[in-house]
Automatic annotation (TrEMBL):
This is GAT1_2.1 protein. The lineage of its organism: Eukaryota, Sar, Alveolata, Dinophyceae, Suessiales. It comes from Symbiodinium necroappetens. The gene is GAT1_2.1. PANTHER family: GLUTAMINE AMIDOTRANSFERASE PB2B2.05-RELATED. Gene3D superfamilies: 3.40.50.880. GO terms for cellular component: cytosol.
Length: 364
């Protein structure tokens, strides 16, 4: 059974030229397979001439000793290798070891029951650009097992509820002004905290920042990125910003998704580069808007990319931005994944992000 290498993964073929270290006959399915034919039976010898003359007096062989001496990491690698082989029999694909982009799901109440979800717009764009979207359930019991979802080659943090006081305090971030109960009811779906989601995303984002891992943060995600870098938030734009444009419509409003407002894009920024074809003879784009909070003061090392007419920041980036070297830390207050028909630059946001993820992965 030969072993061909594709990227970082190994795909097994049907000849017995290469030994499979440490796999015994229980590991190998010797039944006839429609795609692979008869597998070699039951395992290729390891470092032997085909007989058992090198067995010890107690009947054990070097193969058995290899099982005993194999470390936990070696056993894990063999198991992963075997599982990948078996999977490719059912799903015949070339395994290319894509960059792993982690994203935490969101809670939604449907028919009286909570479900976790993540918009397929995001998932499709990650996959179309060569990434593997790794979805993490936002449930409380994910936290103790969070390390099992690593390695992380990219982090996508998107929409959700307002960030909770508990997690902001835990990470030493500034807590914004909160609406009182009556006003908070207007944006009830946003103002109800989701501490479990906050816990997971703050832990992952801080890890990504420490490791230099690419981050694409949208809407609530951009607010999280800003406070982790020492910035502050506007508690409610309608209450705190004079002459504010409409940044959020009631979900029952027929124009909730179609609503747009202008932003002014600053030159020589990643945003200006992505939307270059749409910014000929203008510095203005019209973007969707789903937020009642926003960035007040910008965090350390972050530079502005766009502002709404009322002065609310609509995009920023880390000054070390360089996707070719795996450096990508971006915050957008709007949702490019929901504007694919508006501007070609919306897709380029994800292309650039995945380029950075690939280069970050390859730099390890």
């Amino acid at each position: 059974m030969a072993c061909n290498r594709h990227g970082d993964a190994q795909i097994f073929t049907d000849s017995c030229d290469t030994d499979i270290l440490g796999l015994n006959e229980r590991d190998i399915d010797t039944d006839e397979d429609s795609q692979h034919g008869k597998l070699c039976s039951p395992v290729c010898p390891v470092g032997r001439g085909g007989d058992d003359s090198d067995a010890t007096d107690d009947g054990s062989s070097p193969t058995r000793h290899l099982h005993k001496l194999a470390s936990k990491s070696e056993r894990y690698a063999r198991r992963s290798q075997l599982q990948r082989y078996k999977l490719t029999r059912d799903i015949p694909v070339t395994w290319t070891a894509p960059p792993r982009v982690l994203c935490v799901t969101r809670r939604h109440l449907r028919k009286g029951k909570y479900v976790d979800f993540l918009g397929e717009y995001h998932l499709d764009l990650i996959q179309e650009n060569g990434g593997a979207a790794i979805m993490l359930p936002r449930t409380a019991l994910t936290a103790p097992a969070l390390a099992e979802y690593l390695p992380m080659d990219g982090l996508l943090v998107v929409e959700g509820n307002d960030i909770s006081n508990e997690i902001l305090s835990k990470y030493g971030c500034c807590i914004p002004r909160r609406l009182d109960e009556e006003d908070a009811m207007k944006w009830a779906s946003d103002t109800e905290f989701d501490v479990s989601k906050d816990e997971l995303e703050f832990a992952l984002m801080r890890l990504a920042l420490d490791a230099g891992c690419p981050i694409l943060s949208l809407c609530r995600g951009s607010q999280m990125l800003n406070v982790l870098r020492g910035g502050t938030l506007i508690g409610d734009i309608e209450k705190e910003v004079p002459d504010a444009v409409v940044h959020l419509k009631d979900a029952s409003d027929p124009s909730y998704d179609s609503h747009r407002h202008p932003i002014r894009v600053l030159p020589d920024t990643p945003l200006a580069s992505w939307f270059e074809k749409s910014l000929v003879d203008t510095d203005e784009l019209h973007v969707n808007s789903y937020h009642h909070q926003g960035v007040q003061t910008l965090g350390k090392g972050l530079k502005p990319m766009a502002y709404a007419p009322d002065g609310v920041l609509e995009g920023f980036y880390d000054s070390r931005y360089n996707p070719s070297k795996g450096r990508f830390v971006i915050g957008l207050q709007f949702h490019p994944e929901r504007m694919m028909g508006d501007y070609p630059g919306c897709k380029i946001v994800y292309e650039d992000f995945l380029t950075a993820c690939k280069n970050f992965k390859n730099s390890a």
